[in-house]
UniProtKB/TrEMBL annotation:
Gene3D superfamilies: ACP-like, NAD(P)-binding Rossmann-like Domain. The lineage of its organism: Bacteria, Bacillati, Actinomycetota, Actinomycetes, Mycobacteriales. It comes from the Bacteria. SUPFAM superfamilies: ACP-like, NAD(P)-binding Rossmann-fold domains. GO terms for cellular component: cytoplasm; plasma membrane. One of its GO terms (molecular function) is phosphopantetheine binding. Keywords: Multifunctional enzyme, NADP, Phosphopantetheine, Phosphoprotein. Residues 314-392 form the Carrier domain. One of its GO terms (biological process) is DIM/DIP cell wall layer assembly. This is Mycocerosic acid synthase. It comes from Mycolicibacterium conceptionense. It holds the Pfam family KR.
C-alpha cells in the first residue's frame, strides 16, 4: 500500500472527496506549485452577498419587483441602496421606501433614464458619496412591448432595447473603477425558450446574457438570470398566476441570493415541471424538448406518483425516502444518513435549489427551502402534501 498519494492543488476537490468517502489508503498530499498563481475559492455559504459597508444600485428600483428586492437586500445587510427609475415614486412606492428606511438602511432615489450615460454616472456618484464603495449592481430595468414579427418597427425595438442594452452598457462604463462583488442583470426566459410576440424583448435579453459572459471573459463580475414571470409582484403577475407558472417571491429572492453566492454566469429560472405551455415550445425548441422527459405522461401523472398509486399508503414514506436518497446522492456524490441534517453533508443553497427542482419534477409538489432538513423529514412532508393530491 502506498504511504501517500499526491494530487495537484487544482485537483484538491477530488482529493477531499476521496477522504470524505473513505476511498483512499495512506495519506493524501496536495502539491502546491512554486511558480504561477493560485486562486482561493470562498465556500458559497461564506460569501457576503450584501455588506453593511457597501453601496448597491438597483435599476427599475421603484417597480414592484425592484422595491421587493430592495427590501430584502436591506434586511440582508446592505449599507446603502440607490434605486433608479424614470419616474417619481408613487404613493405606494413612497410607503415602501419609508418601511425600508425604518430599518436603518440609507435608501436613496435617483430619477433618470438609465439608457443615458449621465444617469449611470449619477447613480455611481450618489452610491459612493462619502467614500462608500460600490459593491453590487442589480440591473432590473426593462420595457416590454409585444408585437408580432410583421408589426415590429425600429421604434419598438428601440423601446425594448434601450433600458436593457444601453442601460447595461452605461452601468458597465460607469462602474469600471468600482470594487464590485457582483453585477447582476435580470434577463428573461423569453430569451431562453422564446415567447410569442416578444421577439424584440427576447433579443434585448439575449444581448444581456451575452454581455454577462463577455464581462466574465474580461475578469469582471457578471451574472445573468433569465427569469420566468414572478407571482404577486412585477409586470407579469396576472399571466403568471393564470397559467400556474408563477415564481413565488420568497422562492425568487432565495434563488437570487443563491446564484450570487455561487457566482453563476448564466442561469434560467422558471417553473417548468407540468407547465401546459411547455408542449407548445417543445415542437420547436430543443431546450424545451429536454424537459419533456421528466417522468410526466400525457395525463400529467409522474412515474413516481403512478408507482405510489399502486402501493398501500403505509409504504409511501419508504418509497419516497428511497427516491430522495437517490437524488441527494447524485447532488452530493455520496450516501447520506436519512436522519442526519443534509447541511452536515455540505448541502448548500444551490444544492437545495437543485433538490427542490428535482422533487417538483418528480412529484409536481413545490416545497420551501425550510422544508429541506433531513431525508426522513422531507419524505414525511411530501407524504402529507401528496395525500390530498392523490385523494382528489
Amino acid at each position: 500500500m502506498p504511504e501517500y498519494t499526491r494530487y495537484p492543488l487544482a485537483d484538491a476537490a477530488n482529493a477531499i472527496r476521496m477522504i470524505s468517502g473513505a476511498q483512499h489508503t495512506g495519506k493524501l498530499v496536495l502539491d502546491i506549485p512554486h511558480t504561477g498563481s493560485s486562486r482561493l475559492v470562498v465556500p458559497p455559504s461564506a460569501v457576503r452577498v450584501f455588506r453593511t459597508d457597501g453601496a448597491y444600485i438597483v435599476t427599475g428600483g421603484l417597480g414592484g419587483l425592484g422595491l421587493f428586492l430592495a427590501e430584502r437586500m436591506a434586511a440582508g445587510g446592505c449599507g446603502r441602496i440607490v434605486l433608479s427609475s424614470r419616474s417619481q415614486p408613487t404613493a405606494a412606492a413612497s410607503d415602501a421606501l419609508e418601511r425600508i428606511r425604518a430599518t436603518g438602511v440609507d435608501v436613496r432615489v435617483e430619477c433618470g433614464d438609465i439608457a443615458e450615460a449621465v444617469t449611470a454616472e449619477k447613480l455611481v456618484a450618489v452610491a459612493t458619496a462619502g467614500g462608500l464603495p460600490l459593491r453590487g449592481v442589480l440591473h432590473a430595468a426593462g420595457v416590454i412591448e409585444d408585437a408580432a414579427l410583421t408589426n415590429i418597427t425600429d421604434d419598438l425595438i428601440e423601446r425594448d432595447w434601450a433600458p436593457k442594452v444601453y442601460g447595461a452598457w452605461n452601468l458597465h462604463n460607469a462602474t469600471a473603477d468600482q470594487p464590485l462583488d457582483w453585477f447582476c442583470s435580470f434577463s428573461s426566459a423569453a430569451a431562453l425558450v422564446g415567447s410569442p410576440g416578444q421577439g424584440a424583448y427576447a433579443a434585448a435579453n439575449s444581448w444581456l446574457d451575452a454581455f454577462s459572459l463577455w464581462r466574465r471573459a474580461l475578469g469582471l463580475p457578471a451574472t445573468s438570470i433569465a427569469w420566468g414571470p414572478w407571482g404577486q409582484i412585477g409586470r407579469g403577475t396576472a399571466l403568471a398566476e393564470s397559467t400556474g407558472m408563477a415564481i413565488a417571491p420568497d422562492e425568487g429572492v432565495y434563488a437570487f441570493e443563491a446564484l450570487l453566492r455561487h457566482d453563476r454566469a448564466y442561469t434560467g429560472y422558471a417553473p417548468i415541471a407540468g407547465a401546459q405551455w411547455l408542449s407548445v415550445f417543445a415542437e420547436r425548441s430543443p431546450f424545451a424538448e429536454a424537459f419533456r422527459s421528466t417522468g410526466h405522461g400525457a395525463t400529467g401523472t409522474s412515474k413516481l406518483r403512478a408507482e405510489l398509486g399502486e402501493l398501500p399508503r403505509e409504504e409511501w414514506a419508504a418509497k419516497i425516502r428511497h427516491v430522495i436518497s437517490d437524488q441527494v446522492s447524485v447532488i452530493l456524490r455520496r450516501s447520506v444518513d436519512p436522519d442526519r441534517s443534509l447541511s452536515e453533508y455540505g448541502m448548500d443553497s444551490l444544492g437545495a435549489l437543485e433538490l427542490r427542482t428535482r422533487i417538483e419534477s418528480e412529484t409536481g409538489i413545490r416545497i420551501s427551502a425550510t422544508g429541506i432538513t433531513t431525508i426522513h423529514g422531507l419524505a414525511e412532508l411530501l407524504c402529507e402534501k401528496l395525500t390530498p393530491v392523490e385523494a382528489a
